[in-house]
Specification:
It contains 8 helices and 6 strands. Helix content is about 40%, strand content about 10%. It is α/β, with parallel strands linked by helices.
Length: about 210
Protein backbone atom coordinates (compact mmCIF):
# COMPACT_ATOMS: atom_id res chain seq x y z
CA UNK A 1 0.00 0.00 0.00
CA UNK A 2 1.31 3.49 -0.79
CA UNK A 3 2.31 5.95 1.92
CA UNK A 4 1.49 8.94 -0.26
CA UNK A 5 -0.44 10.02 -3.34
CA UNK A 6 1.02 12.45 -5.85
CA UNK A 7 -1.54 14.21 -8.04
CA UNK A 8 -1.23 15.97 -11.34
CA UNK A 9 -3.42 19.08 -11.52
CA UNK A 10 -4.62 20.20 -14.96
CA UNK A 11 -7.10 17.75 -16.41
CA UNK A 12 -7.05 15.60 -13.28
CA UNK A 13 -8.31 17.71 -10.37
CA UNK A 14 -9.96 20.29 -12.63
CA UNK A 15 -10.65 19.69 -16.31
CA UNK A 16 -8.88 22.75 -17.61
CA UNK A 17 -7.55 20.80 -20.57
CA UNK A 18 -10.76 20.79 -22.60
CA UNK A 19 -11.07 24.58 -22.58
CA UNK A 20 -7.38 25.04 -23.41
CA UNK A 21 -7.64 22.67 -26.38
CA UNK A 22 -10.80 24.40 -27.59
CA UNK A 23 -9.05 27.78 -27.47
CA UNK A 24 -6.38 26.49 -29.83
CA UNK A 25 -8.86 24.65 -32.03
CA UNK A 26 -10.80 27.89 -32.57
CA UNK A 27 -7.64 29.70 -33.72
CA UNK A 28 -7.03 26.89 -36.21
CA UNK A 29 -10.63 27.14 -37.45
CA UNK A 30 -10.22 30.88 -37.98
CA UNK A 31 -7.39 30.01 -40.33
CA UNK A 32 -9.25 27.20 -42.16
CA UNK A 33 -7.31 24.49 -40.36
CA UNK A 34 -8.22 21.63 -38.03
CA UNK A 35 -6.23 20.91 -34.89
CA UNK A 36 -6.49 17.15 -34.61
CA UNK A 37 -6.90 16.01 -31.03
CA UNK A 38 -4.44 13.14 -31.42
CA UNK A 39 -1.81 15.63 -32.58
CA UNK A 40 -2.54 18.11 -29.80
CA UNK A 41 -2.27 15.39 -27.13
CA UNK A 42 1.50 15.44 -27.57
CA UNK A 43 1.74 18.62 -25.47
CA UNK A 44 -0.92 17.74 -22.86
CA UNK A 45 0.64 17.47 -19.41
CA UNK A 46 3.90 18.92 -20.67
CA UNK A 47 4.88 22.01 -22.63
CA UNK A 48 5.29 23.09 -26.22
CA UNK A 49 8.66 21.36 -26.57
CA UNK A 50 6.65 18.19 -27.23
CA UNK A 51 4.33 19.89 -29.73
CA UNK A 52 3.80 23.61 -30.38
CA UNK A 53 0.32 24.43 -31.77
CA UNK A 54 1.44 27.93 -32.81
CA UNK A 55 4.48 26.77 -34.74
CA UNK A 56 2.43 24.02 -36.35
CA UNK A 57 -0.18 26.54 -37.50
CA UNK A 58 2.50 28.75 -39.04
CA UNK A 59 3.93 25.70 -40.80
CA UNK A 60 0.56 24.72 -42.23
CA UNK A 61 -0.50 28.19 -43.34
CA UNK A 62 2.85 29.69 -44.27
CA UNK A 63 1.93 32.76 -42.19
CA UNK A 64 3.52 34.53 -39.24
CA UNK A 65 1.27 35.47 -36.32
CA UNK A 66 1.54 37.99 -33.51
CA UNK A 67 1.51 35.40 -30.72
CA UNK A 68 1.93 37.93 -27.93
CA UNK A 69 -1.47 39.39 -28.81
CA UNK A 70 -3.13 36.10 -29.71
CA UNK A 71 -1.92 34.31 -26.58
CA UNK A 72 -3.06 37.18 -24.33
CA UNK A 73 -6.54 37.01 -25.89
CA UNK A 74 -6.58 33.22 -25.70
CA UNK A 75 -5.57 33.20 -22.03
CA UNK A 76 -8.26 35.74 -21.19
CA UNK A 77 -10.81 33.56 -23.00
CA UNK A 78 -9.64 30.51 -21.06
CA UNK A 79 -9.94 32.28 -17.72
CA UNK A 80 -13.42 33.55 -18.61
CA UNK A 81 -14.63 30.08 -19.60
CA UNK A 82 -13.18 28.53 -16.47
CA UNK A 83 -14.61 31.09 -14.01
CA UNK A 84 -17.42 28.80 -12.87
CA UNK A 85 -15.50 25.56 -13.26
CA UNK A 86 -15.43 23.18 -10.30
CA UNK A 87 -13.30 20.18 -9.44
CA UNK A 88 -13.93 16.94 -11.26
CA UNK A 89 -16.74 14.76 -9.95
CA UNK A 90 -15.61 12.51 -7.11
CA UNK A 91 -12.14 14.01 -6.63
CA UNK A 92 -12.99 15.79 -3.37
CA UNK A 93 -14.26 12.59 -1.76
CA UNK A 94 -11.24 10.68 -3.10
CA UNK A 95 -8.85 13.20 -1.53
CA UNK A 96 -10.71 13.27 1.78
CA UNK A 97 -10.81 9.47 1.92
CA UNK A 98 -7.06 9.25 1.29
CA UNK A 99 -6.33 11.75 4.08
CA UNK A 100 -8.66 9.91 6.46
CA UNK A 101 -6.64 6.75 5.84
CA UNK A 102 -3.42 8.52 6.78
CA UNK A 103 -1.85 9.09 3.38
CA UNK A 104 0.26 12.16 2.62
CA UNK A 105 -0.78 14.08 -0.49
CA UNK A 106 1.16 16.24 -2.93
CA UNK A 107 0.56 17.94 -6.26
CA UNK A 108 3.22 17.78 -8.98
CA UNK A 109 2.24 19.90 -11.96
CA UNK A 110 3.89 21.12 -15.16
CA UNK A 111 1.92 24.35 -14.73
CA UNK A 112 3.02 27.41 -12.78
CA UNK A 113 2.76 27.66 -9.00
CA UNK A 114 0.41 30.67 -9.19
CA UNK A 115 -1.96 28.81 -11.51
CA UNK A 116 -2.16 25.68 -9.35
CA UNK A 117 -2.29 27.40 -5.96
CA UNK A 118 -4.91 29.84 -7.22
CA UNK A 119 -7.17 26.96 -8.16
CA UNK A 120 -6.51 25.00 -4.97
CA UNK A 121 -7.39 28.06 -2.88
CA UNK A 122 -10.54 28.66 -4.93
CA UNK A 123 -11.63 25.05 -4.43
CA UNK A 124 -10.78 25.03 -0.71
CA UNK A 125 -8.51 22.00 -1.02
CA UNK A 126 -5.25 23.48 0.23
CA UNK A 127 -5.40 21.93 3.69
CA UNK A 128 -5.26 18.43 2.27
CA UNK A 129 -1.86 18.71 0.57
CA UNK A 130 1.54 18.63 2.27
CA UNK A 131 3.59 19.62 -0.79
CA UNK A 132 3.23 21.45 -4.08
CA UNK A 133 5.84 21.03 -6.81
CA UNK A 134 5.50 23.01 -10.02
CA UNK A 135 7.44 23.98 -13.13
CA UNK A 136 8.97 26.79 -11.06
CA UNK A 137 10.73 24.23 -8.84
CA UNK A 138 12.48 22.01 -11.40
CA UNK A 139 14.77 22.12 -14.42
CA UNK A 140 12.59 19.85 -16.56
CA UNK A 141 8.89 19.09 -16.56
CA UNK A 142 6.94 16.03 -17.70
CA UNK A 143 7.62 13.68 -19.41
CA UNK A 144 10.85 14.08 -17.40
CA UNK A 145 10.48 12.45 -13.94
CA UNK A 146 11.93 15.40 -11.96
CA UNK A 147 8.57 16.77 -10.79
CA UNK A 148 7.50 13.45 -9.31
CA UNK A 149 10.88 12.65 -7.78
CA UNK A 150 10.97 16.10 -6.18
CA UNK A 151 7.44 15.63 -4.82
CA UNK A 152 8.36 12.28 -3.26
CA UNK A 153 11.44 13.83 -1.71
CA UNK A 154 9.35 16.73 -0.35
CA UNK A 155 7.11 14.19 1.37
CA UNK A 156 10.11 12.36 2.84
CA UNK A 157 9.36 9.06 1.11
CA UNK A 158 11.05 6.84 -1.45
CA UNK A 159 9.51 6.94 -4.94
CA UNK A 160 8.45 3.32 -4.56
CA UNK A 161 6.30 4.32 -1.57
CA UNK A 162 4.15 6.68 -3.64
CA UNK A 163 1.29 6.31 -6.08
CA UNK A 164 0.73 8.83 -8.86
CA UNK A 165 -2.65 9.95 -10.17
CA UNK A 166 -2.46 11.27 -13.73
CA UNK A 167 -4.60 11.95 -16.78
CA UNK A 168 -2.08 12.22 -19.63
CA UNK A 169 0.40 10.14 -21.59
CA UNK A 170 3.20 12.58 -20.74
CA UNK A 171 2.30 12.20 -17.06
CA UNK A 172 2.45 8.43 -17.31
CA UNK A 173 5.82 8.61 -19.07
CA UNK A 174 7.15 10.78 -16.23
CA UNK A 175 5.80 8.42 -13.58
CA UNK A 176 7.32 5.41 -15.32
CA UNK A 177 10.68 7.16 -15.59
CA UNK A 178 10.49 7.97 -11.88
CA UNK A 179 9.78 4.34 -11.02
CA UNK A 180 6.46 5.23 -9.38
CA UNK A 181 3.21 3.29 -10.03
CA UNK A 182 0.61 5.38 -11.84
CA UNK A 183 -3.18 5.24 -12.11
CA UNK A 184 -4.81 7.13 -14.96
CA UNK A 185 -8.13 8.98 -14.75
CA UNK A 186 -8.83 10.27 -18.22
CA UNK A 187 -10.76 13.34 -19.32
CA UNK A 188 -12.37 14.20 -22.69
CA UNK A 189 -8.99 15.29 -24.10
CA UNK A 190 -6.85 12.37 -22.92
CA UNK A 191 -9.37 9.54 -23.31
CA UNK A 192 -8.22 6.84 -25.70
CA UNK A 193 -4.52 7.48 -25.12
CA UNK A 194 -1.81 4.84 -24.79
CA UNK A 195 -1.82 4.03 -21.08
CA UNK A 196 -0.48 0.50 -21.27
CA UNK A 197 2.00 1.12 -18.44
CA UNK A 198 -0.62 2.29 -15.93
CA UNK A 199 -1.78 0.10 -13.05
CA UNK A 200 -5.36 1.03 -13.97
CA UNK A 201 -7.29 3.38 -16.26
CA UNK A 202 -10.59 4.97 -15.23
CA UNK A 203 -12.85 7.61 -16.75
CA UNK A 204 -13.72 9.36 -13.49
CA UNK A 205 -13.10 9.39 -9.76
CA UNK A 206 -16.44 7.69 -9.24
CA UNK A 207 -14.97 4.43 -10.54
CA UNK A 208 -15.26 1.97 -7.65
CA UNK A 209 -11.96 0.31 -8.54
CA UNK A 210 -10.13 3.39 -7.24
CA UNK A 211 -11.07 2.39 -3.69
CA UNK A 212 -8.71 -0.57 -4.00
CA UNK A 213 -5.66 1.60 -4.60
CA UNK A 214 -5.12 2.31 -0.88
Amino acid sequence: MPKALIFDFDGLIVDTETVIYESWAEIYEQNDQILELNTYKNCVGSDFEQFHPGMELEKRTGKKFNWAVIDAEREELIRHRLEQKKERTGIRYFIEDAKAKGLELAIASSSSRNWVLGWIKKLGLGGHFSAFVNRDDVQKIKPDPELFLTAADSLGIAPSEALILEDSENGLKAATAAGIPCAIITNPITAGGNFSGAIMVAESFTDKRLKKLF
